[in-house]
């Protein structure tokens, strides 16, 4: 386990974040593997069908990730405070909520999948492929949710290396299964989704084995399985707002996808390429944010407020620096990045992707700030403000996507994400300033 309340703040944050970052690269690698193998072997329509599902996947899985991250913020606070009995109770209540949302999300996602795709105006030429891919992904939601919960539970103890190892295992299994299901079994995009789910199932089994043998803090017996109203309420008050925040953001992304779908498969393919590069750009930002959330939670539990302020400041500067550097690389190397996913892309697709790179890349510094400040506030145990910021993202993204598409076509839809980041950051900045001042004065929040 790794105690983040000791040592130089930026050093322990980076020590914690680097395994997270490496793990996310592997996670992105097996997501990229799906896209690249589909794009290289099945063609533009299949690639577009997978890409067009991103916002719907984010709606469902993003909610689950938000909930599991929220559940383990409380675990990190209790670990930082040295409350090991409370830590075990937090783990048990987290298991309960993870099981509950696994059941509810799997049933609801599969039941309403086709109507949602129709509502999003998914083109007829790709809707069956999109449905097949999502059926595989949502059919295995339990594995996705428990991977996220168990990884978050370990991170709350300062252990970011074991989730990394689980991701490495999943990555290689996923890539191997991609080739087998797509090229040998000819299962098409369903095979790509099924490969991802089987890989995540393997990572869940690995994490369970590790916790049983290496993490006594999470060893539970029948006597520990008793739930109490106080812990149920406390965990729900933080976890579900974080889940709803992700879902709110995803609804905005679905609105954006709805507008892009009306522009045809070239626009859908260009956006699918660009969203993959967005994921690459945001990896360090996201993982610094995850590190800040755990760092803040542990130090807040230990009442080390000055360490929190220093860690947030340095992480913010580092995240912004990365955003600027990557934006320059992306715009200058646009052909390379586009060719990774669709080597035979038409000039129209390449030109549209470049538009997206320029508009979004120039605003990466905003989203870099967003991830750090939002995670800082979440680490303090405050779920409402990030949810409010999520509403800001929803309103700004949807408004710009709808109005922008009507007047500027793809150019307007490409500006929707930067607008959303602005809608969120204008909520997070004043809140962060207030909280920083309270921490400086030695006040709990």
From TrEMBL:
GO terms for molecular function: antiporter activity; xenobiotic transmembrane transporter activity. It is a multi-pass membrane protein. CDD domains: MATE_yoeA_like. InterPro entries: MATE_fam (IPR002528), MdtK-like (IPR048279), Membrane_Transporter-Flippase (IPR052031). The keyword Transmembrane helix applies. The chain crosses the membrane at residues 12-33, 53-74, 95-120, 132-150, 162-183, 189-212, 238-260, 280-302, 314-333, 353-373, 394-412, 418-436. It is found in: Cell membrane. This is MATE family efflux protein. It comes from Streptococcus suis (strain BM407). The lineage of its organism: Bacteria, Bacillati, Bacillota, Bacilli, Lactobacillales.
